[in-house]
Amino acid sequence: MPDCLFCKMVTGEIKPDVVYEDDAVLAFRDLSPEGDQAYFCDGIAEDLLNLLTRIPGLRVTSRSSAFSFKGKDVPIPTIADQLNVAHILDGSVRRAGDRVRIAVQLVDARTDAQLWSQTFDRTLDDVFAIQDEVTAEVARQLRLELLGAPPKAKPVDPQAYALYLQARQIMLLYVEADYPRAVGLLDEALKIDPDYVDALLLLGFFQDGPESEQTAGRVRALDPDNPTLKAITATEQWTSDGGLAGAARLLEEAAATDPYEPLVLFNSARLADALGKTDLAIRLGEYIAERDPLFFWAQLNLAGQYFIAGRIDEALARFELAKNLNASAGGVRWKMGLARLVAGDAEGALAEFEKEKEQVYRLHGLALAYHDLGREQASREALNELVEKEREVWPYGLARAYAWLGDADETFRYLEEKKARPDALQMGGLATHPMFRKLHDDPRWLPFLESIGQTPEQVAAFRFDVEPPG
To answer: Domain limits at 126?
Structure first.
């Protein structure tokens, strides 16, 4: 019998309280005559992925990881190894006018054996019914016991849906020159269906200021409990005016409505981080990273949470994963270098800092690594250049540098500067942050933590209850 989680459960090797199946939905292939329906194929596959995610007991790899194999000739077992999944849903779409043919197969990913396949030859009006049928059949094939009916797609006008999918594809490609075309497509979709909530949410992505507020108001009127809008509003609250309590309540409400919504989970992890609730941030971060193993930001954020918690070996392992996915984004080499410093590997840290492309991060790291290696002159030169460039814009970075170098007075000066700024929430987790461990005996340390709400007692007293789905 194949060596997969489900098979071990069937044979009795594993008897968990809750049966989990790991699954991935790959980008569907475009077999249309003109080869111009990639946006439609991706949309069908992503909507199926989102439906399957909401089946209890089924763990589904997120879009960014599963779709990373799009257009690549990679064997199913290899994909399964990289995504760590037991089953893969694969398919193709052929669209010609109002007709659509969707072929779907469910594969035992470890053996490449087909468990089920079906071809649906319907009109465009039947797309959502097809999604419902596939979702129910996958649950049946994997022998998942549903407590109720399987999740169902929300039907909308098929022409509006096709326009929305084109606009969503533009958003996912992040080519700003194409954004006006996306807005035009959404405007057309909303003329067909003015109450199309997903189209309105996507339209808000392309808007700023009063326009964005007006669109959000339309969504709020149509769907007051919309979890995506609440997750977006929560972010605006805590980053603009420090409305932590309001942001926490919005995210709790959003998670109660849809505990699987990726943006709700992602922003909840960010808020937990800002609140100093590092253990919660890690639980959420692990859930996100497990379901999106090839998503750079999921790995990088989790590495940072491990780092703040002082779990340095785990942080280094995650930073390595993130670096392998993208070695030039997010200051990943600088962050990994800091973790190596804390681990006592100054030489390894220096090697990372020297490869960091962002000059500010590179100078910061070099000042600390040179200090630990006894190269004081080089350390002072790097630090002086850093202060000259960043004195007005990066007080928290300078505070970290002086804290590591043992200059408590300069550290507190820059911490006080940071506290006075609107983005002071970036100091969440300061109490355990390993870069500041030399300050723990300073009489100013606990009063400062209290002034920013970061003593252990203050962190514990702040209620924020969003956990990863079971």
So the answer is: 5-155
